[in-house]
Amino acid sequence: MKKWWIILLTLFALPAAAQVRVVATFTDLADIVKQIGGAHVQVSSLARPQDDFHLVTPRPSMALELSRAKLFVRVGMDLDLWADDLLAAARNASILRGASGYVDCSVGVRKLEVPTGRVDPSMGDIHIYGNPHYLFDPANAKIAARNILEGLKRVDPANAQEYQRRYEAFVQRVDEHLNRWHQILAPYKGTLVVVYHKSLPYFLQRFGLQELATVEPKPGIPPSPGYLREVIARMKNTGCKVILIEHFRPRRFPDAIARETGAKVVVLPAAVGAEGTTDYFSMIDAMVNRIAAALAGR
Ligand SMILES: [Zn+2]
What we know:
alpha/beta, Rossmann fold, four-stranded parallel β-sheet, 12% strand, globular
């Protein structure tokens, strides 16, 4: 009788205790970690889905989470520079840059809009290492997944085979979805769109759409009335009918442009968990479907 109890305890107690604690900076990455780590990982995200991804406020509880983590997963470039102070405060040497528990998902990504020459404040105060919104191209989600896979294998080699298998399944799923997403947006190749912030160059390049203008004159800088008039004139001249904004943006400027141009403002979930999305696939699904519907005039 006693032996049965031991077997039961082993079955139910051990897996939880053996789970790898992973802390990601954003929900998109936390989801990819979950898809590759499965039951072997316990993952949390420091930023919440509703946060403006450039304005995440560090909280003491975040440092506590990091102090207990075995793996730290970040977008990298300048999107989660706010995590560096938290990493220092957490005093967990195993997840510092260069340690086995540190994963920068931008490694291997072909970066867009990398500044050439001197960077100065007139260029805006963000995107200093190039455009960090690479995860909106599903092909780059595969690169992020590869970096996460290698991190999980380093900190938990006992489950390396399962991580590898789940990674391959993730890649296959991305490829299948990519085909479908391409088909949905194929009729609109070359179509001009206005975006609030430069968050979509990777997405637009992947699906063949073109950015006419941004509502912000520079990343992180609000528009002046004169600048808005310029955007409105360019939209009228080209017949551009769609303004794409992330879910956390204020509607004031896009709505003002829409009133003048008759364009439609399309709200995109720019984080897993926003606008009812539950994982990376449903996030890109919603982006693709909402854009296609607006471009079709629905
Ligand atoms: Zn940005």
